[in-house]
Inverse folding.
């Protein structure tokens, strides 16, 4: 029975990921359509009859065709995309309702059909007839699927879509929609939240917008309130590195919209799932009570993105009330849980590992072991960070490694992509979170794969750079010893300013700055904290200045500011050295 349950989890997860992977790359088009609707329809901010004529064709043709094209591309590249788009057109014209579900069916089906045809006949094509066969096969298969979709898929999906829409409206009418957050909040942490938001709520919400001008469904998963409340509770009542790092995490979560950053904090204390659920239910109840809704998807789930998608006639106060109420309730519940905790300290790094393990378990996978590979400049021509959505934490991880690669004098490009968009090419190093590595390997067996437990704080980046430059990197144990030794030499009583050094990527330095500022503020320490690029560090080259950096950047800092006092840490966000320095200062 347990194996069957695990298998079901895998199937559900794969289905959700497949749906979100068709929508996520096209979120920009949904947002553009959302602005078009919010501005130019009769009840919009700037009513315009001429521009308003674009609204219906966009949701009827443009958005479903993009989804179908993307679904076909994910299965079989360009040929799959073309056949998928042709097949989707049949579903679109076979009914009068927006055919998002039909596109999610016909797009992959078109890609699969042409892929199977090529596998069966490509080797039998006579030389010189390749282009003829390829073009006609794609056209004829697309034509056949178009007719099937027109007569069968379109009408069936239209009936199902109408039934689902009526079901959602019925749930809203009896005020039960907030109960959906009982499932949404744990699923965000244990699975991958994009499957919910973009695989289910975005298509359904877009259809509601055509009728009502707004949809509450865009707010169910993207509400940053529950996560904000939990992080604030850690800032007030947390311990050790979890307390100090929560301030920087709040900025990334609430304004940057990267909700994944609070997941490890929940996993640290599983009872905090109750706080997330309570906040989510409260937020949705408040949204529903005041008639809140958005004109398009808010992606990422930043308060800035959410407020930017509020249509005319919808209340900004209703949106803000829903976010604040969710944050307050999750904060209160989380505070009770954290204040009742009698443990000596929290291990944020262990919680991050637990987050990854939980996701892997939810998918029916074992956590992947570290992958060893012969990494060198001869074997690696590009580095790609891959995750489900290809944005968020993977983009931040790519930024961190890109800076390290450039500082090492290498010209290897570092980018980020969704796993579904990966191409199987030689001389490619792909970095993934551990539970996603098996999928990435299945997609790109010829690439070199490296697993990390967390995109933001992995020590494997230094190991990658060391192998590429054929140098050595200190072991974790030695790094900790060296860091502690340096930290004990610094007395904050003789420090007039603290500076976080950074290269081209300023994200980690800013998070570290906010973390240390919060610690200083809590302890009544008036020392100013700022950030500086390596090029500008010469302005801080004095004995009364402390520069915070990582071991990978230590040499650059020492060269730029040889007279400053340098604190070398393994992570500028989660290091315990800040608390140790403050404790020594008050002795």
């Amino acid at each position: 029975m347990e194996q069957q349950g695990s298998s079901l989890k895998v199937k559900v997860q794969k289905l959700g990921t497949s749906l979100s992977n068709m929508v996520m790359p096209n979120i920009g088009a949904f947002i553009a359509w959302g602005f078009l609707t919010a501005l130019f329809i009769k009840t919009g901010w700037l009513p315009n009859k001429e521009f308003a004529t674009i609204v219906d064709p966009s949701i009827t043709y443009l958005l479903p065709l993009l989804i179908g094209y993307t679904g076909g591309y994910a299965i079989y590249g360009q040929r799959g995309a073309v056949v998928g788009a042709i097949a989707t057109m049949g579903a679109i014209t076979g009914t009068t309702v927006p055919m998002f579900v039909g596109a999610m069916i016909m797009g992959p089906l078109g890609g699969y059909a042409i892929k199977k045809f090529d596998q069966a006949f490509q080797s039998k094509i006579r030389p010189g007839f390749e282009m003829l066969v390829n073009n006609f096969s794609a056209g004829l298969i697309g034509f056949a699927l178009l007719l099937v979709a027109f007569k069968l898929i379109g009408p069936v999906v239209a009936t199902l879509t109408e039934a689902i829409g009526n079901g959602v409206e019925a749930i809203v009418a009896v005020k039960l929609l907030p109960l959906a957050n009982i499932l949404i909040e744990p699923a965000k942490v244990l699975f991958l939240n994009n499957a919910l938001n973009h695989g289910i709520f975005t298509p359904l919400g877009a259809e509601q917008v055509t009728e009502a001008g707004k949809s509450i469904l865009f707010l169910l998963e993207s509400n940053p309130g529950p996560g904000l409340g939990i992080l604030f509770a850690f800032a007030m009542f947390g311990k050790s590195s979890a307390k100090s790092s929560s301030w920087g995490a709040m900025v990334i979560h609430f304004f940057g919209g990267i909700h994944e950053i609070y997941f490890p904090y929940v996993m640290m204390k599983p009872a905090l799932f109750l706080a997330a659920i309570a906040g989510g239910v409260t937020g949705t109840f408040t949204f529903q009570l005041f008639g809140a809704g958005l004109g398009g998807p808010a992606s990422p789930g930043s308060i800035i993105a959410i407020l930017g998608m509020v249509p005319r006639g919808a209340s900004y106060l209703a949106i803000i009330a829903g976010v604040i109420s969710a944050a307050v309730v999750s904060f209160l519940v989380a505070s009770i849980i954290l204040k009742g905790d009698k443990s000596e300290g929290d291990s944020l790094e262990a919680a991050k590992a637990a987050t990854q393990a939980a996701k892997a378990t939810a998918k029916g996978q074992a956590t992947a072991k570290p992958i060893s590979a012969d990494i060198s400049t001869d074997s690696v021509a590009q580095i790609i960070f891959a995750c489900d959505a290809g944005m968020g934490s993977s983009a931040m991880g790519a930024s961190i490694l890109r800076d390290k690669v450039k500082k090492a004098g290498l010209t290897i490009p570092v980018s980020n992509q969704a796993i579904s968009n990966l191409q199987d090419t030689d001389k490619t190093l792909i970095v993934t979170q551990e539970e996603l590595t098996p999928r990435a390997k299945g997609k790109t067996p010829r690439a070199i794969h490296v697993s990390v437990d967390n995109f933001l704080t992995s020590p494997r980046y230094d190991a990658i750079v060391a192998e590429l430059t054929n140098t050595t990197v200190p072991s974790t144990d030695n790094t900790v010893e060296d860091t502690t030794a340096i930290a004990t030499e610094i007395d904050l009583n003789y420090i007039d300013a603290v500076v976080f050094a950074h290269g081209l990527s300023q994200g980690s330095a800013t998070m570290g700055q906010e973390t240390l500022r919060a610690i200083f503020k809590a302890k009544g320490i008036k020392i100013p904290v700022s950030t500086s690029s390596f090029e500008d560090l010469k302005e801080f080259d004095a004995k009364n200045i402390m520069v915070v950096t990582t071991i990978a950047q230590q040499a650059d800092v020492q060269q730029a500011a040889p007279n400053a006092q340098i604190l070398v840490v393994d992570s500028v966000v989660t290091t315990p050295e800040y608390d140790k320095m403050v404790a020594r200062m008050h002795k």
Notes: Residues 1-6, 358-372, 473-488 have pLDDT under 50 and may be disordered. The two ends are 58 Å apart (CA to CA). The CA atoms of residues 29 and 62 lie 8 Å apart.
